[in-house]
Amino acid sequence: MTRLTKEDIIEKAKALGFADIGFTTAEPFISQKEILESRRKEYAWLLKFGADPFQGTDPKNVLPDARSIIVVIDSFFGEAFPSKLEAHFGRTYLNDDRKLRRGYIKRLLALRDFLREAGLEAKIPPYMPHRLAAARAGLGTFGKNCLFYARNGVDGASWNSPVPIVVNREFAPDTPSVEFGCPEWCRNACIAACPTRALQGQGKIDPRRCISFLTYYGQDLPPREIREAMGLWVYGCDRCQNVCPRNAPRLAARKAVNEKVAEMEEDFELPRLLHMDEKYYETRIQPHMFYMPSSEIWRWKMNTARAMGNSLDPLYAPDLIRAFRENDDERVRGMAAWALGRIGGPEAKMALESFLGESAGGTEEEILHALGRSGAAKTPVRKSESSPA
Ligand code: SF4
Ligand code: SF4
After folding, report:
1. What is the pLDDT of residues 9-36, one digit of tens each?
2. Residues 139/22, Cβ–Cβ less than 8 Å
3. 381 vs 366, higher pLDDT
4. Distance from Cα 134 to the centre of ligand 2, integer Å
5. pTM
6. 79, 169, 188, 337: most buried by Cβ count inside 10 Å?
7. How far is the CA of 150 from the centre of ligand 1 (A)?
8. What is d(CA 281, CA 275) in angstroms, rounded to the nearest whole number?
């Protein structure tokens, strides 16, 4: 067997359609470990969900004989997505075929197998700091929105996925580019535009305030004061990327429509999401957006109700009234009431009045707030009255 060279691997990665590839050492990610240590509170949720970000800070935890990390970049915004979908879903999730084992995951496994067939041990770690690994491999720079801007692929925009592969052979490392690449004149547009103030400057983010996090991991109704700011997002959020001048060329570029994503448009219409049952979720939605098990379908409905409310479209009022009546989960009912209050109008008001007699606690308080009578609740407000997810 001939010994695999760096050039062979680069050639294979390019042939598989990756936008770029770089190499770095298997040194531990000490700075990342220090950041995680100092911000344990902000990242405690990750441990709670069974993920261990500390584990990935040392490649030797992934592969005891780790010698190098190969990082590939996949770009996912080469084609256009329907604007209706872009209004509610992060682009990264619209084209996520990981669960279906299509698209880039298939190509990634092909690259890993290529390395293994050449006699290398090769592992794709689940929790390695992938953006930092990519910067250490010289593949691009950071933005102050904490995202990674690849030097190659989709005009250097942030719509890319860096993926590290740890191997047990040493390859010459590329020159690192661990730095911010933001032009000074930008004046932190992403930080100013973040509606929930999750971005804190100096490349720091409080994930617990980020809309993306809240849409798939939030455990209760989001605080009322940020519901309006959460806008129309149902799953993910692209706001800090959409305002970024480094992304402007890609946003403006002429792109063919991604037909596969376009075909999903009907399935992801808001009324369908609001009224879906578990079977619909498992067959139409979860194959593409899978961070929540079907037992947590309430969160999809709650997010959808909030997006409908923030659309201010009275055509959604009948759907919200129906959702309030048909759902047992108080988080869905509470958000449907909030959304009706946001839309307003006689139909919404009449429905809210009729709900009052059949509600108590937090839901009653949501209804009273929606009717502009906040503070008048007759029964004590509980944090959550819903069955556990
Ligand atoms: S994804 Fe949205 S909420 Fe999260 S940091 Fe960016 S703009 Fe803020
Ligand atoms: S908006 Fe400005 S500061 Fe934020 S990532 Fe883009 S260039 Fe950097």
Report:
1. 999 999 999 999 999 999 999 998 888 8
2. yes
3. 366
4. 19
5. 0.90
6. 337
7. 19
8. 10
